[in-house]
Amino acid sequence: MPGTKPAIPPPPGVSHFFFGLLGLILGGLFFYAGLLKHLAPYAFAEAILAYQLAPEPLVGLVAAILPWVEITPAFLLIVGYSLALVGWTAVFCGISSGAALVGGIKRRSCLLLLMAQAGLFLLVLLITWARGLKIDCGCGLFTSRQVGLVPVLEDALILALVAVVYWWEARRTEG
């Protein structure tokens, strides 16, 4: 209505900052992992070949595309949560215009893509472990290690964390 002030959003709670920081960390993790794969495409292609799941003629294509499918939503998630954290901080300090920074980038879409990737990586690890292949998991974030219980648990934890942040985003935006 003309002449009325827009509603001032309620101040964010601790959960906003906790899940915002968790979203930043997850975005950084996926961005770093994708960047490592992008910067070493031949090593990544060899890791894909070792899993014996993709047809050999498609390995180069997968090695070229998959890092970007990981990097892009991770980068957008980092930007989205960075802006949101600044916006939430501004709102918390009583600057209502900070709310304009909160919803620009669709973080749920980014989280959904990263959740799908984490689920796919976990599935591939489980299939490879069940087949008894003794190969390097190609996770490459910290050290090289064989496919087994530890990489499976790490991927399951990452998948669970992405799912929890997605659930929080869905509840926050719908309610």
Report what the structure shows.
By secondary structure, the protein is mostly helical. It has one domain. Helix content is 70%, strand content 0%. The chain contains five helices and no strands. Helix 1 packs antiparallel against helix 3, helix 2 crosses helix 3 and helix 4 (107-131) runs antiparallel to helix 5. The radius of gyration is 19 Å and the shape is elongated.
Q: Keyphrases for this structure?
A:
mainly alpha, elongated, 175 residues
Radius of gyration, taken over Cα atoms and rounded to an integer in Å: 19 Å
In the residues, how many domains can be counted? 1
Strand content: under 5%
- The helix-and-strand class reads mainly alpha
Report the mean per-residue pLDDT as an integer.
Answer: 86
- Helix and strand sequence: HHHHH
- Low-pLDDT runs: none
What's the total helix number? 5
Q: How many strands in all?
A: 0
What proportion of the residues is helical, as a percent range?
55-70%
Question: Major β-sheet, in short?
Answer: none
- Calculate the terminal CA-CA distance, rounded to whole Å: 24 Å
**What gross morphology would you assign?**
elongated
Topology:
Elements (H helix, E strand, L loop, with lengths): L13 H26 L1 H11 L7 H34 L14 H25 L17 H26 L1
